[in-house]
Design brief:
Elements: H1 3-12, E1 16-21, H2 33-36, H3 43-48, H4 53-66, H5 72-82, H6 84-93, E2 97-103, H7 114-120, E3 124-130, H8 131-139, H9 145-161, E4 166-169, H10 171-174, H11 184-197, H12 205-218, E5 226-230, H13 248-252, E6 261-265, H14 270-279, E7 283-286, H15 290-293, H16 298-305, E8 314-315, H17 324-347, H18 353-372
The chain binds zinc ion (ZN).
The site of zinc ion has 5 residues, from loops.
């Protein structure tokens, strides 16, 4: 038995904290496995994903767990026969989670509310507040800028006082991560431009930057971690503007030195994220969705994350949404990847088994528990 195979069962015993996930969807929305194993939205591309290693691995592993033939039809048939709720509970139970932090700002058809989602999953659930969608809600009705600003701050304060575990920015999607310094006058001008467009989507860089700094300022007395979307996303995103190394001004800003900044996804900028997490004490990284989309390369990607960053900086997360199958695969494949990576370090005598287990506990749960703390409620 290889060190990785020997280590793998022990990782199932660690109750993990999934610090980045989204709600499940109502089964009537008709999401399919092939649709959620890439960021593609074009039907031709999602159909082509059936010839990607992750799809084959997904069918293989789901069929093995569920005890059905290894094809999509057999899995769908079982899902229909068993019923959505029991099927979901069975898959979520197998994820071995202690807690899940859920960003409900990602909109898709049939998305469950946080309360309905929490009722289905067998672990604690806390919310993460998405900054840009909160700003859009605050701007509804196009009131004067000072009012919108006040409303936004109140919404952020209220969410954190109400138990939200963190803030999240999707600036990468809206204007890119190269943000100008936050400035109230520039923000007021940008707000006037936004009002003239009369579209609800916030995309102006000075305004995105301003709301980000307002959000951090609103919770400065009880700072919570800031999650930053970096790396890949759907075609709405300009990949070259999602490189986490563009965040240097934010990372260098002394006002935020005590705010944990967690770089989400990171792929294909895992090396950059690993570097940043190795030089800034408050920077962390996860590999959410990267280890699902490229499951066959899992150990290599985890080792790349540890190229420069220590084990105390890497966090487990699934980034799963919509289908319970995606939560199951994310949790299982993350552990497979981690066992593979740590197994290799044992094999070449870099670490011993006790160190591997300690690092696995940190990456799967301990790092997130330290950052996000226990639920305040
Ligand atoms: Zn996500």
């Amino acid at each position: 038995m290889s060190p990785a195979e020997e280590l793998r069962p022990a990782l199932d015993e660690i109750r993990a904290v999934d610090h980045h996930a989204h709600p499940l969807a109502d089964p009537g929305a008709g999401h399919l496995l092939a649709d959620v194993l890439s960021e593609a939205t074009d039907p031709a591309m999602t159909a082509a994903m059936r010839d990607h290693p992750s799809h084959h691995r997904a069918v293989r592993d789901l069929a093995r767990f569920l005890g059905v033939e290894a094809n999509e039809g057999a899995i769908a048939e079982l899902r229909a026969r068993e019923g959505f709720e029991p099927f979901t509970r069975r898959l979520l139970e197998a994820c071995g989670l202690a807690e899940m932090l859920v960003d409900d700002g990602f909109r898709f058809s049939g998305a469950l509310s946080i309360a309905d989602h929490a009722a289905l999953v067998p672990c604690a659930v806390r919310r993460v507040l998405r900054i840009e969608t909160t700003a859009e809600a605050a701007a509804e009705g196009w009131r004067v800028f000072a009012t919108v600003r006040g409303r936004f701050r109140a919404m952020v304060e209220e969410a954190v006082a109400g138990g939200a575990a963190g803030l999240k920015t999707i600036a990468a999607y809206r204007c890119g991560l190269e943000l100008p310094p936050a400035d109230p006058d520039d923000a007021a001008d940008a707000y006037a431009r936004w009002v003239r467009t009369d579209t609800p989507r916030l995309t102006d860089a000075p305004l995105v930057s301003f709301f980000l700094s307002e959000a951090l300022d609103a919770v400065r007395d009880r700072p919570v971690p800031l999650q930053v979307h970096t790396g890949f996303g759907d075609t709405d995103l300009a990949l070259h503007r999602a490189d986490p190394s563009l965040l240097r001004p934010l990372l260098e800003d002394e006002r935020y030195a005590d705010v944990p900044i967690v770089l989400l996804h990171c792929y294909p900028f895992v090396g950059q994220a690993s570097y940043l997490a190795s030089v800034y004490p408050n920077v962390y990284l996860d590999l959410s969705m990267a280890l699902t989309f490229a499951a066959h390369r899992g150990p290599e990607i985890v080792l790349e994350a540890l190229d420069l960053a220590p084990a105390s900086k890497l966090l487990f997360a699934t980034d799963a949404s919509r289908l319970p199958e995606l939560f199951f695969l994310g949790a299982m494949w993350w552990r497979d990847a981690l066992a593979g990576a740590l197994g290799r370090l044992i094999e070449d005598s870099t670490i011993d088994r006790a160190t591997a287990l300690r690092w696995a506990e940190l990456i799967l749960a301990g790092n997130a528990q330290r950052l996000y703390g226990p639920s305040a409620l």
